[in-house]
Automatic annotation (TrEMBL):
Gene3D superfamilies listed in its UniProt record: 3.40.50.40, L-asparaginase, N-terminal domain
Active site, UniProt feature: 15
Binding-site residues for substrate, renumbered to this chain: 61, 90-91
Key words of the record: Hydrolase
Annotated organism of origin: Gimibacter soli
Domain of life: Bacteria
UniProt protein name: Asparaginase
Domain (L-asparaginase N-terminal): residue spans on this chain: 7-187
Pfam family, one: Asparaginase
Biological processes, Gene Ontology terms: asparagine metabolic process
Family, as annotated: Belongs to the asparaginase 1 family.
Residue ranges annotated for the Asparaginase/glutaminase C-terminal domain, each copy included: 208-315
Length: 328
């Protein structure tokens, strides 16, 4: 009989680990289930893999940091499992998974998963998501890093949480990379090309602001960034990459002091580079020093720029950012 692959589960907390708090505390759910609890709650896992489980923390995912992601990557790089599954809250999963996508240099796949419904309510999805993630990690053909939710496999560079509560909250531009059907893992096509390691150091990440352009807003926040200690900025612009003339002037001035990435606030689609020529449109902004974010959304652009600024000089970071983002 062929032995089952060894999969390591790292639990960080989140809705998948939440149950109702004590009566004297908050009436809502709080992180309480351990990694061992989660695995024990899904007997079917024993047919798929030999699983070991470790609880690294029990927090809501808004409390996770790049340092936490780096620690998960370090443990996976030093381990000997055939694959790794990380359970966490869904609120920041699109960011933590992308950070791992950039930082992780190991060979065994890492799969991020969680739940949209806590275990105490009807239709809880945590058990199904955990089983699906373990199936992907144990499949022998999983992406280097992925997000598995609702029986779908997502590329960390493209996935986003697009709904506050739906079990189908996780969506990707261009659709998922694959699915789990009747217990089998199906990938839509060849695995995404794994980027060359960029030797990024999460401990050196620099503060990068994320600002959203909105109708008739002042430029005060844009102008204040240097004095607030930020070393870079991402601007979520209108449409394909457009700003009002006052914002365009302020952004151009800021780009002379620090890297400024031009992204879109729409939530889907690439930032344009050569379509609109009026003042404040993408051609003008790029000519005045802003860096187009390619297919990266605002939050992922911020993580990439933050890590690059900490590991490379400003000009090198700008070139590396564009080289990476333009290929997404």
């Amino acid at each position: 009989m062929t032995s089952l692959p060894h999969i390591q589960v790292f639990a960080l907390g989140g809705t998948i680990a939440m149950t109702p708090g004590a009566a004297s505390a908050s009436p809502g759910v709080v992180p309480s289930l351990t990694a061992t609890d989660l695995v024990a709650g899904v007997p079917e896992i024993a047919k798929v893999a030999h699983v070991t489980a470790e609880t690294l923390m029990q927090v809501g995912s808004a409390n996770l940091t790049l340092a936490h992601v780096a620690e998960v990557c370090r443990r996976a790089e030093a381990g000997s499992a055939a694959g790794y599954v990380v359970t966490q809250g869904t609120d920041s999963m699109e960011e933590t998974a992308f950070a791992a996508f950039l930082l992780y240099e190991g060979d065994a796949p890492i799969v991020f998963t969680g739940a949209m419904r806590s275990a105490n309510i009807p239709g809880a999805d945590g058990a199904a998501n955990l089983l699906a993630a373990i199936r992907v990690a144990a499949s022998g053909g999983a992406p280097h890093v992925s997000v598995v939710m609702n029986d779908e496999i997502h590329d960390p560079a493209r996935v986003r949480k697009s709904h506050t509560s739906s079990v189908a909250a996780f969506t990707s531009s261009g659709g998922p990379e694959g699915q789990i059907v009747e217990g089998r893992v199906f990938l839509r096509g060849p695995l995404p090309v794994r980027h060359a390691p960029m030797k990024l150091d999460a401990a050196k990440a620099q503060p990068v602001a994320l600002l959203t352009a909105t109708l008739d807003d002042t430029t005060a926040l844009v102008e204040a960034l240097p004095s607030l200690g930020y070393k870079g900025a991402v601007i979520a612009a209108y449409g394909g990459g457009h700003l009002s003339e006052p914002w365009a002037d302020a952004a151009a001035k800021l780009a002379a002091e620090m890297p400024v990435v031009l992204a879109t606030r729409t939530g889907a689609g690439r930032v344009l580079e050569k379509s609109y020529g009026y003042r404040g449109a993408e051609i003008d902004l790029i000519e005045r020093g802003l860096i187009p974010s390619g297919g990266l959304d605002t939050r992922k652009a911020r993580i990439l720029l933050s890590l690059l600024l900490g590991s490379y000089g400003t000009e090198d970071a700008k070139a590396r950012f564009y080289g990476f983002a333009s290929g997404i």
